[in-house]
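Module 6 notes. Inverse folding takes a fixed backbone as the condition and produces residue identities as the prediction. Think of it as a translation problem where the source language is geometry and the target language is the twenty amino acids. Below is one complete input and output pair. Work through it position by position during the lab.
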């Protein structure tokens, strides 16, 4: 387990590297955000941002998306993986927001996770970004970085990773750190080609030290 000083070093390093990290999914309101995050499962934010402008232009409200034909939704998001299932989910999600929540995206975790296509990660993102509630959403980048740096165990599942991150970092920093972990994983500590030689945390990174030995 990392010492407190090492955890603080990670926090300070990410703040220095990515002080302006933010949610890169383009959205104008909580409804657009929850749809965009639901679409982003197993897809890049960049790809989602390419399809959502036309989607939201055609269906700007929960009522509009709820009333749309699934085939029409599919046509607008077909560049995204699993687009057929996702089209069904975001239509059903919209129907439930309209019927159960008065067309307003709920700011309650239980209600969010009850929406079709919305799991814990999506709920965490919406609570954090749309409603300012401290949350530590764990996506592939957050999971990879936290395990490479030894914050979490290799065998930990995403729930265990989230629990560990929330325990080790200050609550008031969760939401910002979530984005900083993502930026670090997306632009620096990439899955296939991490920038180990220029990494200020290389001496702490289990994966990085192995890779550097291989280059020696």
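Target side of the pair, the amino acids:
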């Amino acid at each position: 387990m990392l010492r407190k000083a090492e955890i603080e070093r990670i926090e300070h390093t990410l703040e220095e590297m990515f002080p302006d990290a933010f949610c890169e999914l383009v959205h104008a309101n909580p409804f657009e955000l929850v749809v965009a995050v639901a679409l982003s499962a197993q897809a890049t934010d960049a790809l989602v941002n390419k399809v959502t402008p036309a989607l939201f232009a055609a269906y700007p409200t929960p009522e509009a998306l709820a009333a749309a034909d699934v085939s029409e939704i599919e046509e607008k998001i077909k560049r995204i993986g699993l687009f057929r299932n996702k089209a069904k989910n975001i239509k059903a999600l919209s129907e439930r927001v309209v019927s159960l929540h008065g067309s307003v995206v709920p700011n309650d975790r239980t209600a969010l996770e009850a929406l079709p296509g919305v799991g814990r990660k999506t709920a965490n993102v919406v609570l954090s970004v749309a409603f300012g509630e401290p949350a530590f959403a764990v996506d592939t980048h957050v999971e990879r970085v936290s395990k490479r740096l030894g914050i979490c165990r290799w065998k930990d599942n995403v729930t265990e990773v989230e629990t560990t991150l929330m325990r080790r970092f200050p609550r008031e920093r969760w939401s910002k750190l979530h984005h900083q972990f993502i930026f670090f994983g997306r632009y620096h500590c990439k899955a296939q080609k991490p920038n180990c030689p220029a990494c200020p945390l290389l001496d702490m990174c289990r994966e990085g030290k192995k890779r550097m030995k291989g280059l020696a």
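Reference fact for the lab report: The CA atoms of residues 23 and 125 lie 9 Å apart.
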